[in-house]
Design brief:
alpha/beta; FAD/NAD(P)-binding domain; 5-stranded parallel beta sheet; 7-stranded mixed beta sheet; about 500 residues; 14 helices
Length: about 500
C-alpha cells in the first residue's frame, strides 16, 4: 500500500520561551547581579545544563550589561561606548537570553509576566513565563522629586544612552554659545548644573568639565573661564564613602578649577531653563544633570514578595528572600543584612562592590540548594567594606582603601587599576587599556555625534516624509534641552514629596 503524502507541513515552531523538562532558573535583570549570577551558575551547573536537568533563563531589557563606573569616561570620550558594555549572549553562552521587561511576578504560582520586543511589535499582550527558582535583580532607577521642570528639562546619568547623550549635549551647547549673538543664550548654554554629590554626580562633573575645558581651545571665542559648572548637594559634604577628610579635599580640588560647589542646597525648579536653588539664587541654565540617588526598580512593587519600608526585597544573609522558598535576590533591589558590620541591624550598601561579591555566594547557594543541601547549611554573605575610590577628572582622584588615604594622581591611578581589574571579560579589559594608552599618546576626542540620536532625520527630510519616529528635521538638536519646548524622557514617575534625595551614587570601591 502506498502511504498517503503528508500534507500537514512542517511542525510549528515551539513557543518563544518554551521550557525544558529540567529545573528552570529565571534571572530577572542583566545588570551586575543578574549577569554575574548567571555567569557563575552556568559554570557551576555545567553538567546539569548539558544533561537537560537545569536551564538558566535571563530576561533583560538590554542585550548587554553596562559597567557603570566607566560611564563618566565614556561621556568624556576616554573610552568608546561599545567598550563600556558587555554583550550578554557572548558571555552567557549556556544561558537563554530574552530581551524584554518583566512587568509582574506571582511567585506563589511561579509565574512572571513579560513584555518582549516581539510582543510589542505584534501588539500582543504580555506573555507568561514559568520557573522553578527565581533570581530577582532588576537593579534600581533614578530617584527623583516632583521638582518643576525636572522631568522636562533634566537628564540622569545612570545609563550609557544618558552618558553619550549628555556628552553630545555639552558639546552642542558650546557650539550654540560660539555662534549666538545673544549674551543671555550664550550664558545659559555655558552653564552646567549637576545635582547630587555622590559618585555619579562628582565623577560625571569632573570628567565632563575636563573635556569641555580642553575642547574650548578649539573655539575662537570661548575660553575655559567662560564655562560655569555648579555642583548642588543637599547635605554638608560630598563623596561620603571616601570619608570626611577626602570629601573636603575633593571640594577644594573642584573649587580650584572654578567649579561652584554649593552644599546644603537643593534644586527647587528648572522650568524654562531657569535654575532656582534653595539658597535664593536664580540663573539661566540649559543643562541640568540629576544624579541625586537611586531607588529600587518599580517591578518590586508588582510582586508578591515581602518588601521593606524603602521598597527593597527583605532578604537573609544567605541571599534568600526572607520567608519565601525558591526566591533569591542581591544588589540594589535587596535589603541584605551586613553581618560583617559591628552596627546592629546594619545592611549592605547598594553599591557594585557588594553586588558583585554577593553573586558568588548567591550562585553557590542556588547550586547547592538544587543539589539537596538544606537551607540552614548554605553560606552567608559577609564582606568587610574595603573602601572606595573616585575620579575627579583626568589625573585627579580621591581614595580611602584599607584605611589608607590617597589623593591626586595616585588615587586616580588606583581608580583606573581597580576598575580595569573589575570590568568583565579579557576582551573588554584589553580594549579599555588600549584606549587609555592611545588617549595618552594622542589628543582628546572632541567630536559630538548628536545626529546618531536621530538617524532617520536627514533621510526623512530629503524624502519629504516629515520627521521620523523619535526624530526631527534638525539632527543636532539636543534631546534634553530642546529648542522648541520641553521633552519628556522615558523614565519612572517622580517620587512623592516625602522622599529625600540621595547623594551616595550606586557604587563604591
Amino acid at each position: 500500500m502506498v502511504k498517503a503524502a503528508d500534507t500537514r507541513g512542517p511542525a510549528p515552531d515551539p513557543p518563544p520561551i518554551a521550557r525544558t523538562s529540567g529545573t528552570r532558573i529565571l534571572v530577572v535583570g542583566g545588570g551586575y547581579v543578574g549577569m554575574y549570577t548567571a555567569l557563575r551558575l552556568q559554570r557551576k551547573l555545567r553538567q546539569e545544563i548539558a544533561r537537560g536537568e537545569a536551564e538558566i533563563l535571563m530576561i533583560s531589557p538590554d542585550p548587554y550589561m553596562t559597567y557603570q563606573p566607566f560611564l563618566p569616561e565614556a561621556a568624556a570620550g576616554s573610552i568608546s561606548p561599545a567598550h563600556v558594555v558587555v554583550p550578554l549572549r557572548r558571555i552567557l553562552d549556556r544561558c537563554r537570553i530574552v530581551i524584554g521587561e518583566v512587568t509582574a511576578v506571582e511567585h506563589a504560582k511561579r509565574t512572571a509576566r513579560v513584555n518582549t520586543l516581539a510582543t510589542e511589535e505584534e501588539g500582543a499582550g504580555a506573555i507568561e513565563v514559568t520557573y522553578d527558582e527565581l533570581v530577582i535583580a532588576p537593579g534600581s532607577v533614578s530617584r527623583t522629586l516632583p521638582i518643576p521642570g525636572l522631568a522636562e528639562y533634566a537628564i540622569g546619568f545612570k545609563t550609557l544612552e544618558e552618558a553619550i547623550g549628555l556628552r553630545n549635549h555639552v558639546i552642542e551647547q558650546m557650539d550654540i554659545a560660539s555662534s549666538t549673538r545673544d549674551p543671555a543664550i550664550r550664558d545659559a548654554a555655558l552653564t552646567f548644573v549637576f545635582v547630587g554629590g555622590g559618585y555619579a554626580g562628582v565623577e560625571a562633573l569632573g570628567e565632563l568639565e575636563d573635556m569641555a575645558r580642553y575642547t574650548a581651545r578649539y573655539y575662537h571665542n570661548i575660553k575655559p573661564a567662560d564655562l560655569k559648572w555648579i555642583l548642588v548637594e543637599a547635605t554638608d559634604r560630598i563623596l561620603p564613602e571616601v570619608g570626611e577628610e577626602m570629601g573636603r579635599y575633593a571640594i577644594r580640588e573642584l573649587r580650584s578649577r572654578n567649579i561652584d560647589v554649593r552644599l546644603t542646597t537643593r534644586l527647587e525648579s528648572c522650568e524654562n531653563r531657569i535654575a532656582v536653588l534653595s539658597d535664593g539664587s536664580r540663573f539661566p541654565a540649559r543643562t541640568v544633570v540629576w544624579t541625586a540617588g537611586v531607588r529600587p526598580a518599580p517591578l518590586l512593587a508588582a510582586t508578591d514578595l515581602p518588601l521593606d519600608e524603602r521598597g527593597r526585597l527583605r532578604c537573609t544573609a544567605r541571599l534568600t528572600v526572607d520567608g519565601v522558598e525558591h526566591a533569591w535576590a542581591a544588589g540594589d533591589a535587596a535589603a541584605v543584612p551586613d553581618i560583617a558590620s559591628s552596627t546592629p541591624g546594619a545592611e549592605c550598601a547598594p553599591n557594585a562592590q557588594h553586588a558583585v561579591r554577593q553573586t558568588k555566594v548567591l550562585a553557590g547557594n542556588i547550586a547547592a540548594s538544587l543539589r539537596g543541601r538544606p537551607l540552614d547549611e548554605l553560606d552567608e554573605y559577609a564582606h568587610r567594606y574595603v573602601g572606595s575610590v573616585a575620579s575627579l577628572g583626568l589625573h585627579r582622584g580621591v581614595a580611602h582603601v584599607y584605611g589608607r588615604k590617597l589623593k591626586g594622581y595616585p588615587a586616580w591611578l588606583m581608580h583606573r587599576i581597580y576598575h580595569l581589574s573589575r570590568v568583565p571579560t579579557v576582551n573588554r579589559k584589553a580594549r579599555v587599556l588600549a584606549e587609555w594608552t592611545l588617549a595618552g599618546l594622542f589628543k582628546r576626542e572632541i567630536v559630538s555625534l548628536g545626529s546618531l540620536e536621530h538617524p532617520r532625520a536627514e533621510f526623512a527630510s530629503a524624502a519629504g516624509a516629515g520627521p521620523g519616529p523619535g526624530g526631527s528635521h534638525t539632527p543636532k538638536s539636543g534631546p534634553y534641552m530642546p529648542k522648541d519646548g520641553p521633552h519628556t524622557p522615558k523614565n519612572s514617575p517622580p517620587d512623592t514629596p516625602e522622599s529625600t534625595p540621595g547623594d551616595s551614587g550606586s557604587r563604591g570601591g
